[in-house]
Design a protein that fits this description.
It contains one helix and four strands. Strands 1-4-3-2 form a four-stranded mixed beta sheet, with no helix packed on it.
């Protein structure tokens, strides 16, 4: 009887976790690529990626809300922090 109860509970948990996975995927925002013609409407910056300590151009991401409250993820290029001026 205990084994049957454990089996029923484990299948219920597996079903609940399976239902959660597509919701997380659906909530992911598409990543927008920055170009010089991109119109930026940034009301609030949520997060920015770390810039690595290298001396080359590297990709970076910024997550932000626009003036309408919609969340965006922007990918752009930036010079790394590893260059010395001497």
């Amino acid at each position: 009887m205990k084994a049957l109860l454990v089996l029923a509970l484990s299948s219920l948990c597996a079903t609940a976790m399976a239902d959660e996975a597509p919701a997380d995927v659906a909530q992911q925002q598409p990543v927008e690529e920055y170009t010089y013609s991109t119109h930026l409407d940034i009301a609030k910056v949520i997060s920015m990626s770390e810039i690595p300590n290298v001396c080359e151009v590297v990709p970076a991401k910024m997550e932000y809300d626009d003036s309408k409250g919609q969340r965006h993820i922007l990918r752009y290029s930036v010079m790394g922090n590893g260059c010395s001026n001497g």
